[in-house]
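Hey L., structure's done. Input below.
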Amino acid sequence: MNETASSRLRAGAWLAASGVSTMERRLSRSASGGSDLAVLLHSFDGYRRYWLPAAHFTAKHLPANQEIHFATEERTLDDERLIPLLTGTGTFVARLTRAAKQLEQRGVRSILYLQEDMWLTEPITTVQLDNWVDLMDRHRLDSLKLGKESVWGPEIPSIREAPRLDDERPGRAFSWFGEHHWAMSHHITIFRPRFLIQSLYAATLRRKREPIQHEIFCSLYLKTRVAAGPNDEKPYRIAVWNDQPAVRYVHASANGKLTQPGLDLLKQEGIDDLYRPGLEGEVIPGRD
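Output:
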């Protein structure tokens, strides 16, 4: 299949997903007065070995009153800091869709998304969270990219040349994403629920159900459709950190295995006993 045909299929899937998304919104009886921001810590039952460290680092570095929703399949943690959110089993895209829809139905306006292997290393304050939500509102952003791997390495110099969101201090820390690779990334990002759900529906229609498939499919579609400045009328509005990542974290898993930086962080904190490999039902990609 040539690129033109592939592009048409991607566009068709997004158009169909947009229709479903709009109808769902009209039929929704979402709670009014929901949270401006909810944290979604996303995992599945085969990665339980990462759950205790993920809970530790997420709760440690977020404000004590911040909602943290822990999305898993059929098991969860007994941890008062986390709000269980069960998605049932299924593909990555199916499970994330269910989680995002549950939050949207609870009236959540923005989702700070991270996965069980993204371990925060520095505090995130209430002021920072409020500033980021304010930027989302003022610039009508669909997503705000916070983490180091939300930009493809060779493109970092051109991102630094991109227009800043505005001259206010929080706005100067972020640039308009424009026509760059990886407009969709699962590294720490604030999403509008409807944008995230639409992207997941579109990927489902094209049978792109695994994490990297969702990222690639959506990024290819979005690449020419993301605004490069405040007056750009392209349909999607995405911003990304400019000089340095807004959120610091260790990526603790590579192909399901604990990374050296992850192990080092556990030892540094004196909590290496929280990482528990070998639990029943654990999944190691490539071995199963």
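Residues 26-33 have pLDDT under 50 and may be disordered. The CA atoms of residues 258 and 269 lie 16 Å apart.

-- N.
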